Structure formats: C-alpha cells, structure tokens
C-alpha cells in the first residue's frame, strides 16, 4: 500500500543486513536457532537428501521486511562466468579474478573480509575489441539464464501466494553495468573518447535486460511487486555522471526498459543508488523510476525535502542515519523521532537505515532501535 501512496493500517519497516553483521551478532547473543534457515537439498554426488544451512532469517526475528525477499532468479550476468581464482598473494594482499572478469585486491588478514571494499586493479572491458569479446557472454537467449525448475504455472502460484514481503526482479542499470565492466574512470572518459562504444554497450545492455527478462515478466506480470534497479551512480558530493550525459546517453534506454515493465503492469521501480542524486532527480523521474533507496544522509539526501518537492512521484525507503542509529540511546531516538512521524504523515515512505546494517551495530543496539521504531508503525 505504501508504494501506492496509500496509508496502511501498519507501516512496514525495511532493512538490509551485511551477512558479516549477522555473523558478528551470533557471537553477541543473537540466538542462532531462531535465525538460521535449514532446508533439504539433494547431495551433489548421490540421491541422498540432506539438510543444508540456507542462510539467516533475521527479518522475522526483528519484525522487519526485506523489500526484495522473493526475487525471480534470472541470471543476467556473463555466461560463461570467468573462473574465480587467486592470481597472486603476499603477506598483505590477495588478488582474485572475479566471476565478472575484474581483478580485485583484498587484504589478507582483516576482521571483516567481505565488509571491507576491495580495490579493483583491472577490468575486462577496455576498448571496442575487448567489448566485442565480452558481449559474447551476454546473449539474452542463453538457456542457462533461467532456473532448471522454470515452470510457468508453478512460478505463477509461488508469486501469487507469497506473503512474507515483496516479490521482485533485480537488474543492474546502465551506469552500474558500465562501471562494473570498465571501472568508473575509464567508463566515464569513454563518453567523450569513444561515444560509439558507450552507445553500443548501453544498447546491448537494454537488449539483454528486456529479452533476458521477457518470458518471466510476460508470465508473471503484476505478480511482480517491484523492480529493484541497482545503479550506484553518485558519491558524497554529487553524481558521477552529468545531467547532460545522462539525458543524451542513458535516458532513452531507461525509458525503453521502464516502458517494458509498465506495459506488463509492473509499475513500481525502485532505484538503489548511493550518494547525492539531487542534480539527477528530475531526469530519474522522467526515466520512469518511481522509488529511491537508501537516501544516504552522509551525502546530504533528505527524505523530507524530497517528499515535499516531489510528492507522489517517488516513494522512498531508508534515510535514517545508520551512524546515529548504531549509537543507540538519545542519538538513535532523536534520528527516528525527527523523521519517521513527518514522513509517515506525508505518505509513500518506508522507514529504515540509509544503507545496509553495518558491523558497527552491536546486537543490543540494533534490538534497542528495533523496539523503538515499532512504536511508529501502528
């Protein structure tokens, strides 16, 4: 109801968690038997069915939602994958060939391996020639893109009956796709140095996205509640791409993809982008995006100001300063009190932290926050 700008009986509360945060909390008192999910799985080398740990359901434990809890498993990555392996290592670093073809350097000894951002030392696409080779891995009609158990009627029933949160499809956007394959400096410079290459890359990504998803989208239609559109196209001081370049290169392709979803009755398209997006907001709305997350406070994103300016053109998720929430006590309560009542009244807002729940949260501080925010949900 909230993403349709209607007032619900109970306001949903959405969070995302780093897995390493959950692992840390297991050592701080989070009861493992309440959050570990175990299910049957056939053994790789026999006909033996055996229980396997599938993950953690902390959402039910705390009473919050994952806004993409049931995501249709279309594989829009490179097929075949690059072989992930260690290329070199020393006392401080390990360099890894990732499955997308980029080389990432990580610290060898660090308390939180996956929470620490890697440094990418090379990327698979550098020019027209390397792009032509990479594009062979991005055939939208490769049968491996769909799950082995893809059966239209079974998935229709699954998506119709799902009641633990939103159903969705997840995609990478045009900026995010290019930055991942080329690295941000190379990708941005290519808009000027080789615009034909950029146009070909973006056009093919549109083709892959629409054609790769077509069968699922045309089968499930509005049983899919949400499109989660990952971009990460900004940093603290502003977007990494100018409004001029966005309008010239990205906007027409955005419109084609969002039109495809809306023709199939999928009207809610949530863009996940860090950073300060203010210079692009009008264009983002024109592109057909209808929601934003996480609205980082450190990048000066202000959900109240955005709501007052854009009203029902955008639904919003997040914007509670994770740094303040993690402190607990009066600082946490002040952050919640200052924003949630106002945004609840304005409508089209789902409370949550302004990004994933990070390892600086203790289990006790998050419990305190969880208990406190619930008073505003009813």
Overview features:
about 375 residues, alpha/beta, TIM Barrel, 2 domains, 7-stranded parallel beta sheet, 4-stranded antiparallel beta sheet, 14 helices, about 40% helix, globular
Would you give the CATH topology of the largest domain?
Answer: TIM Barrel
What's the shape?
globular
Q: How many strands in all?
A: 15
Question: What percentage of amino acids are in beta strands?
Answer: 15-25%
Q: Strand sequence of the main sheet, in spatial order?
A: 3-8-9-12-13-14-15
Tell me roughly what share of residues is in helical segments: 25-40%
Q: Under the CATH scheme, which architecture of the largest domain would be assigned?
A: Alpha-Beta Barrel
User: Over the alpha carbons, how many angstroms does the gyration radius reach?
Assistant: 21 Å
The structural domain count equals 2
Topology as a string of helices (H) and strands (E): HHEEHEEEEEHHEHHHEEEHEHEHEHHEH
Structural class: alpha/beta
Provide the low-confidence segments as ranges. none
Main beta-sheet strand count, sense and barrel state: 7 strands, parallel
Number of separate helices: 14
The CATH class assignment of the largest domain is Alpha Beta
Mean pLDDT across every amino acid position:
94
